[in-house]
Amino acid sequence: MKIKTVKKIIFITFILIFLYKFKFCNNFLNKMISYNYYNYIYNKNSLIKNYIKLFKNNSKLLSEIDLLKNELNDEKFKNLILKRNINNNKNILKKINFNIIKACVINRNIINNVYTINKGLNHNIKVGQVVLDKNGVIGQIINVYKDKSNFLSICSKKILIPSFIKRSNFKCILKGCGYKNELYFYHIDNEMISEDDIKIGDIFLTSGLDNKFIKNIPVAIVKYVKIKNFRINKIYIKPLFYAFLIKNVFIINK
Questions:
Q1: pLDDT tens-place string over residues 2-12
Q2: Do 93 and 197 belong together in one domain?
Q3: What SS3 class is residue 240?
Q4: Domain total for the chain?
Q5: Host H or E run for residue 212
């Protein structure tokens, strides 16, 4: 009788130990599975995020490369600028009767047309001031901090510049078309644009009608004109600066 009781106790003890170990193993396996599953999901999410980030960076780089190619290959445009003596700082600065603040570009976001300069509130920089380079108008101050500022280039869709061509007195409003480094124009007069109004190589100057951009400062050059039925059908207008090469700038301090 005693032997049977002892056997029962041993058997029950064995069963309890087995169940305890099984429960421990089961919990351990569950934890391992959960941990591995979490790591798997986390790694997958990280890979997806990295892929999206790389895709965005790649798209941005490709856009900037296209811009750079267009600018560097445009020898005809360079020659037109040199021929008309726009590359002379003194010719532009002599026309300005206001103080000029010199600054340098320290950062650029070409896709968004935003540039950062090394002058700010401490140097009397204010929102709305016009920014020039050696060729003409390039933008307008939009944000000012203690020792730096941001300006938006005229290629942005947010900037409108009343302009005219001195040769023909053709009046219009120039507007940027984004990161393409091109400008659109809106004709002010209701008359049709004739072949004599705009020619390749014509320079658009600020008209000063908006009281923001002072008069007679170069803005853009006519690079291409398509004529159909003796009328202008398409015009390609290019600003007088290279987005990648903007470095030394001048801020008009009215």
A1: 455 655 566 66
A2: yes
A3: coil
A4: 2
A5: none
Residues 14 and 81 in one domain: no
Q: Which two tokens stand for residue 141?
A: 């101050």
52 with 115, same domain: the answer is: no
DSSP 172-208: EEEEE-STTS-EEEEESSSSPPBTTT--TT-EEEE--
pLDDT band at residue 99, thresholds of 50, 70 and 90?
A: confident
**Distance, CA of 53 to CA of 51 (rounded, Å):** 5
What CA–CA distance (Å, rounded) separates 237 from 200?
A: 9
As a whole number of angstroms, the distance between CA 55 and CA 73 comes to 27
What's the CA gap between 179 and 204, in Å, rounded?
20
Q: Which residues pair with 99 in a beta bridge?
A: 253
Q: Are residues 200 and 132 in the same domain?
A: yes
Token reading at 90: 């003194």
Structural domain including 37 reads 1-73
Shared domain for 81 and 7, answered yes or no, is no
> H/E element holding 223?
strand 218-228
**Start-to-end CA span in the chain (Å):** 114
Q: Would you give the DSSP letter of residue 123?
A: G
Six-digit token pair at 231? 């009328």
156-207 pLDDT, tens digit each: 999 999 999 988 888 889 998 886 778 888 776 666 777 788 888 899 999 9
